[in-house]
Write a structure and sequence with these properties.
Layout lengths: L8 E5 L12 H14 L3 E4 L11 H14 L4 E4 L5 H14 L3 E4 L8 H15 L5 E5 L1 H4 L5 H10 L3 E6 L5 H13 L6 E4 L11 E3 L4
Parallel strand pairs: 1-2, 2-3, 3-4, 4-5, 5-6, 6-7
Antiparallel strand pairs: 1-8, 7-8
Helix pairs in contact: 1-2, 2-3, 3-4, 4-6
Amino acid sequence: MPLTANTKGVFAIAPTPFLADGSLDQTSIDTMIAFYEGCGVDGLTILGIMGEAPKLNAGEALDVVKRVLSRFRKPVIVGVSAPGFAAMRALARSSMDAGAAGVMIAPPPSLRTDEQIVSYFAGAAEAIGADVPWVLQDYPLTLSVVMTPAVIRRIVTDNEGCAMLKHEDWPGLEKISTLRQWQKEGSLRPLSILTGMADFFSISKWSAGPMAP
């Protein structure tokens, strides 16, 4: 089932297992999936920052996606951030074809102004296709890109495919409160907000809800 603004629950942020020689550890992917299923998570996020996606080539990234999707029967979000839109589109389309619930896009560290940020995500949304639901990743402590609530509202308003915000700013309650207030006022459409910073030092936690405080 594709992601929507009403998606909620706990989404584990999954690492990518490697062998000592740097190749993918396929067996450990299976073990990891079984572990998360045993924990009762509502979904998974793969190939994000914790998933060390930049260490993988295009073929390896797709291998991870297919392996996870063949074994995990709940929603899977695939990180598709890439230096170029062509690579982003290829992984996004292949992931959705394989059964992913949606994709996640992070801003490249080179973005500095509000207009650059808004323009980048417009291009990214066009690249992956209007039919692909996607998560906007807001992690300024690592990515060095600061997105104000106003910028996030512009991105969400301009791109119907943006169904969620992965909020990892710190501290961030004021930002979330502002976005929720705009929703109550009707100046921001429904948006699921997934929070990760409350469990910064653990492997998992995406706590999501369409109208969580």
